[in-house]
Design brief:
This protein has 158 residues and is an alpha/beta fold. It has seven helices and five strands; from the N terminus they run βαβααβαβααβα. The chain has helices at 14-24, 32-41, 51-66, 80-93, 107-113, 117-126, 146-154; strands at 3-7, 28-31, 71-74, 97-103, 135-138.
């Protein structure tokens, strides 16, 4: 089993790619945005928006991994602190961690896809560069990105 983290700015296509890869593996796909929207719908507020959603996704991911399922986390993961959550989880459960950093190499296309360009710009301002092993996918150039991502995620996990 594998813990995969799909990271990148809003609107780059990471959720679409995560769902496609999750269906093909198969894997449980857990989206931080989905949890965050649900928390807000029930008036759950917090001083650091989105923070609780990462914790909920981490708890759900742990449960799924302990059940023997592959897990894909779909989240912006803009800063090292958010990313460390997944490193710690993978280490604790002794499962491989695979990071897929997703971006859209064309600003016009990225702007078209994004629900809010202001949110993209805000995330971009706080986004720290990734370091370490990862697969980088440009959803603008990659016409068929699912197969290379599957190959990366399943490398030495069976």
């Amino acid at each position: 089993m594998v813990l995969a983290v799909f990271a990148g700015l809003p609107g780059v296509g990471k959720s679409t790619l995560a769902q496609q890869v999750g269906a093909a593996m198969p894997a449980t796909v857990l989206a931080v945005d989905t949890i965050d929207v649900a928390l807000r719908a029930y008036d759950v507020t917090e001083p650091r928006p989105g923070y609780a959603a990462y914790g909920v996704v981490a708890a759900l991911a742990e449960t799924q991994l302990l059940m023997g399922h592959h897990v894909i986390v779909d989240a912006v993961n803009p800063v090292k602190g958010a990313r460390q959550l997944w490193v710690d989880l993978a280490d604790r459960l002794d499962v491989p961690l695979r990071v897929v950093e997703v971006f859209c190499g064309d600003d016009d296309e990225h702007r078209r896809r994004a629900n809010s360009w202001a949110d993209v710009l805000k995330s971009r301002a706080e986004y720290e560069p990734y370091v370490g092993p990862r697969l980088v996918v440009d959803t603008f150039l990659a016409k068929e990105p699912v197969k290379p991502v599957l190959n990366y995620l399943t490398f030495r996990t069976s």
